[in-house]
Amino acid sequence: MSRRGAFIVFEGCDGSGKTTNITRLVAELGARGYGVTPTREPGGTAIGEKIRSVLLDRKNLRMSMRCEALLYAASRAQLVEETIAPAIERGDVVICERYYYSSLAYQAWAGGLDPEFVRRLNEWATKDISPDLVILLDVDPKQSLGRKEGGFDRIEGRTLDYHKTVRDAYLGLAAAEPRRYRIIEGAEPIDIVWSHVWRYVQELLVGARGQG
Q1: Within 13 Å and on the Cβ side, how many CA atoms surround 150?
Q2: For residue 204, what are the domain limits?
Q3: What 3-state class would DSSP assign to 48?
Q4: Among 52, 53, 21, 56, which Cα is nearest to 137's?
Q5: Residues in the chain, pLDDT under 50
Q6: Of the four, 17, 70, 99, 206, which is 20 to 30 A from 109 by CA?
Q7: How many Å apart are CA 70 and CA 161, to the nearest integer?
Q8: pTM for this predicted structure
Q9: 122: CATH
Q10: Structural domain includes residue 148
């Protein structure tokens, strides 16, 4: 039976559990016969991974916020063109770790750039392709950053106040789009968090199947 493609995005502060839950979701959907395309940003393509290395390199501390926003948008544009749009077209469930909401939170709200400009830039870069579901894993930044092993990258190494503003931004974005966002308390035990993730994804896919 053919299935309509779906686009799911995981957002949240660094260390909130996005990668852990995406890995589990990819395995679960694959076991149930879904075509799944997992990806991440910045990165996800050969070009995007090169941009990622520049963005996260702690040697690039002099990078301006404008430059940062443009590089994220550039990586995102390539990811949509090369991976996300074709996967949705062929009916896959696309699962992306971060999307343009990250730019609104990190470069606009916390970084001081004009949110409307950042939004327009990213709508253009992504061809107005928006996710069907955004799962926001909400964790206090002090706790989430404490989960990180090894050194911090250029973004993670910013002040705690910066990351608190990022969290506030995400909650504001979720409040503005309640039909698209689902907020999960990321500090809960792993299996509890996963149970919420799986419930929301099932709700989306049942609805998508009904429309197919």
Answers
A1: 2
A2: 6-211
A3: helix
A4: 21
A5: 1-2, 212
A6: 17
A7: 23
A8: 0.93
A9: 3.40.50.300
A10: yes
